[in-house]
Amino acid sequence: MLEVARLWRDLGFTPKRTVIFAAFDNGGGNYFVNHPPFPIKPSDTWTAVLLQGVGAGAPKLVRQEMGSGLARAFDQSARRFGVHTGELEEWQFFFISRYASGYVTSDESYSGLAVVRPGDDLSGTPADTLDHLDPELLAEAGQAVAHYLMVLSSR
Fold it and tell me: Is 53 buried (19+), middle (13-18) or exposed (0-12) by CB count in 10 A?
């Protein structure tokens, strides 16, 4: 996340859409969705990109989309950097939001793409330390995600 922000700054990239970088602990994403730090209305559409365990594991990234066309766009960005991708079987999205007049389900207000690297059994555990990360795998994931977000935020 920080690498994407740094890269955008270094490239002088200015997105056409609002981009929020946020890191959450367990349950934090749900809280953010239900208590946004700025005004939103029911017609607003959000696209979230969730990253987990992309710095170690298998030599490919797997993804699952909730929405339309997000996986295809990510695959295109990844290919530009020689990163192999595949389909993620299952992901539990936290996209349940509410606003003054009631609840909005994920398919009404949110779309998303979850990106993980299979084979990283230490991600999210106490053994998930900086020594565990593979700088090359982290860099390739960073390049693919940075490009993908540039494409998304330029539309």
Answer: buried
Estimate the crossing angle of helix 70-80 against helix 135-153, to 10 degrees: 130
Does the pTM exceed 0.90?
no
Cβ proximity of 17 and 155 under 8 Å? yes
Under CATH, what is the fold of the domain 2-13+46-153?
Aminopeptidase (3.40.630)
By the 8 A CB rule, do 148 and 74 touch? yes
| Each residue's pLDDT tens digit, 48-107 | 888 888 889 999 999 988 878 899 999 999 999 999 999 988 776 555 444 434 444 444
3-state secondary structure 35-94: CCCCCCCCCCCEEEEEEECCCCCCCEEEEEEECCCHHHHHHHHHHHCCCEEEECCCCCCC
Of the candidates 114, 147, 104, the one whose C-alpha atom is nearest the C-alpha of residue 48 is 114
